[in-house]
Amino acid sequence: MDVAVLGPALLDPFAPAPHGSWSGNGVRVRRRRGTHREHAAVCTPRFCAHRDGDALTVEHDLTPDELSDDLAVLLTEELGATGVLRGQPDFESVFTGIVRSTIEGGMSAWLRFYRNSLNALESGNAQFAPIHQRAAELITGRRVLDLGSCFGFFPLRLSRNGFDVTATDLSAPTMDLLARVSPKLHRPVRTITCDAAAVPLPDAAADTVTALHLLEHLDADAGNTVLGEALRLARRRVIVAVPFEDEPQACYGHVRRFDTAELHRLGERLGRTHGVTAAVDEYHGGWLVLDRN
Predict the structure, then answer these.
(1) Three-class SS of residue 248?
(2) What domain of life does the UniProt record list for this protein's source (predicted)?
(3) Once rounded to an integer, what is the mean pLDDT over residues 143-161?
(4) Residue 25 — left, alpha, or beta (φ > 0 → left; ψ -120 to 50 → alpha)?
(5) Can you list the positions of beta strands (E) in the chain?
(6) pLDDT grade, residue 38 (50/70/90)?
(7) Percentage of the chain modeled with pLDDT above 70
(8) Is there a contact between 163 and 90 (Cβ–Cβ < 8 Å)?
(9) Among 66, 89, 116, where does a domain finish?
(10) Residues 177 and 250 in one domain
(11) What is the distance between the alpha carbons of residues 172 and 105, in angstroms, rounded to a whole number?
């Protein structure tokens, strides 16, 4: 899973938006014109935000060149601890609003966002870049199924490198966005809107199944179900990556924390119940790789 998601709020990435502004789900985002002056309840170097009851207004001064997946990191650093964002729905709405208010036209805005993000990820300059690089190195076979794909940057990376890849996510708007953007990027990706715990594909549908930064969004029982489903779908290997956090990042929708001991426990249990070999490693977070014997 990429850093930000368009999930529970069911945001429409292509909803009409006046030039320089975007509104949805009680959130209004405007691109600032002119110099910044401190005037809101919360003012940071790049954002001004205030609430009026349940309504949230955010102003920003980001430029088209700054639209990328690392926007999630900037939002977290500047607004995450202020309390102005009430959970993941506000975070997602502000994220979407920044993209749409910075460039006029839905497709133009998202294409710029995707190209910037892919350039940063594939050049190694994005925060998530080492995770994608490591996951790509661990893949075996040519057919890959990615669970919890969100924006689908990892499937797009694999498509560029000649893999036969399918992206899945619970969010229909996000899968629609990926399906519409991927042909324009000349990186074909199949998309399926589904729960990662119930993917409508046959057993052994892929050589490798990936779940990158997905399990931290799920409680233990749901996570175990997803791991079982991943093993059903994988002919050869399952690759799991999770962040190591002191506390789950609520603004990202994280509900569970991991460490190497927990990954070892998961691997040992799956080895007993599914007859797989488990390997645990630490690299920009934790890794659990499950191989069929």
Answers:
(1) coil
(2) Bacteria
(3) 97
(4) left
(5) 21-24, 27-31, 42-43, 47-52, 55-60, 143-146, 164-169, 190-193, 206-212, 234-242, 276-282, 286-292
(6) low
(7) 95
(8) no
(9) 116
(10) yes
(11) 20
Regarding pTM above 0.85, the answer is: yes
Report how far residue 284's alpha carbon sits from residue 130's, in angstroms, rounded to the nearest whole number: 7
Which long-range contacts (C-beta less than 8 Å, at least 24 apart) are formed by 157-162?
Answer: 157/118, 157/121, 157/122, 157/132, 159/187, 159/188, 159/189, 160/122, 160/187, 161/136
- Average pLDDT estimate for 23-50: 86
Q: Do 145 and 62 belong to one domain?
A: no
One domain for residues 112 and 132: no
Residue at 244: amino acid letter = F
Domains held by the chain: number: 2
Q: Residue 63: CB partners within 8 Å, gap ≥ 6?
A: 102
Q: Which two tokens stand for residue 78?
A: 């500047």
| Nearest by Cα to 2 from 190, 143, 149, 108 | 149
Residue 16 lies in a domain: no
Task: Return the residue matching tokens 């499950």.
Answer: 290
Assess whether 112 and 140 both reside in one domain. Answer: no
Asked which of 86, 116, 146 is the last residue of a domain, the reply is 116
Rounded to the nearest angstrom, the gap between the alpha carbon of residue 140 and the centroid of all alpha carbons in its chain is 23
DSSP element (H, E) containing 59:
strand 55-60
